[in-house]
Amino acid sequence: SSEELDERIRAAKRALDKDLVILGHHYQRDDVIAHSDHRGDSLQLARIAASLDSARYIVFCGVHFMAETADILTASEQIVILPDQNAGCSMADMADDQEVEECWEMITNLYGDSIIPVTYVNSTAAIKSFVGQHGGLTITSSNAEKIFAYALQAKRRILFLPDQHLGRNTAVKFGIPLNEMCVYNPQQMNLEFPYGKGDPRVILWKGHCSVHTKFEPRHVHEVRAKYPGIRVLVHPECMHETVQLADENGSTDFIIKAVRNAPPGTKWAIGTEHNLVNRLKQEHPEQLIVSLNEMICPCLTMNRIDRPHLLWSLDNILTGKPQNIIMVPPDTARWAKAAIDRMLQIS
Ligand code: CIZ
Ligand code: SF4
């Protein structure tokens, strides 16, 4: 039964005691978050992972690239476990290292050494490593503006991986015109100029989040018609046109704080992952909170992590046979860490 499952997870946690830390991303199911020792967004969890020097086992309830980052930032004797190996991220999987090599060759032929590569943390360790090797750095949605400012000072152009929307929305905040952004299409191996052809300052990889792109401009119009005075709050992984119409946009942490700091009676339509919107709804009954798109599903890969997988992971540790260990090869990890460390120093 459900109570039995919770009790078995609690018992396993007690048995492992200080040897275990469970990290939970804000997009996880409520019943998994209930068992996490720390919850956070990807930047917060990366920082927490880096500070955990005593825990031998880190069970990461989130997606694959986040567990890779935790492995990169923790000591070599610490073991990072992802309860379901199939919990990937469709956005991260939209850029593979071979394709990025091809892109880099093409754009450096066109624009010489005027380009700095920047990758969203939602990318594989191999992509972070490529970026680290080419003098670039990682970025999260909560430090995007600081990192962009740094990158634009370092070079004339940015190659932004793998989320075109976060890249475009951040570049707009810097006053870069839409026609000075192009999109690299890895299937066609060419540059597209969806908003007209200027001299590109930002080359956006043609990737997207399958969850956040489901919030469309029409949803903003519909929700405003239905709830007069409602504030629309979205994540910058949403399309530019949606972000432009919203009242506010920002990272997971920004969204949580905006709600936490709002007075009772505030009305919000939130455009981000379903589990997080639902949790905010439960935690703030004094406000009216709706999803910007009520038809949306949770992030399917985040949702793969459930209590049976969590318990299975803990039981495997207890029997001395940990499974689903995430181990980034040392060479990849070294360069990926260089890209992450540059970001952590700046943000
Ligand atoms: O996976 C995502 O979409 C996000 C926003 C992760 C994070 O924690 O920044
Ligand atoms: Fe990836 Fe989007 Fe899911 Fe985040 S919400 S893990 S970016 S697919």
Automatic annotation (TrEMBL):
Intracellular or extracellular location(s): Cytoplasm
Cofactor note: Binds 1 [4Fe-4S] cluster per subunit.
Enzyme class name: transferase
Record field: catalytic activity: iminosuccinate + dihydroxyacetone phosphate = quinolinate + phosphate + 2 H2O + H(+)
Entry binding sites for iminosuccinate: H25, S42, Y120, V121, N122, S141, H235, P236, E237, T252
Stored InterPro entries: NadA (IPR003473), NadA_sf (IPR036094), Quinolinate_synth_A_type3 (IPR023515)
Sorted UniProt keywords: 4Fe-4S, Cytoplasm, Iron, Iron-sulfur, Metal-binding, Pyridine nucleotide biosynthesis, Transferase
Keyword 4Fe-4S: yes
Single Gene Ontology MF annotation: quinolinate synthetase A activity
Xref: SUPFAM superfamilies: NadA-like (SSF142754)
Family the entry assigns: Belongs to the quinolinate synthase family. Type 3 subfamily.
Protein name: Quinolinate synthase
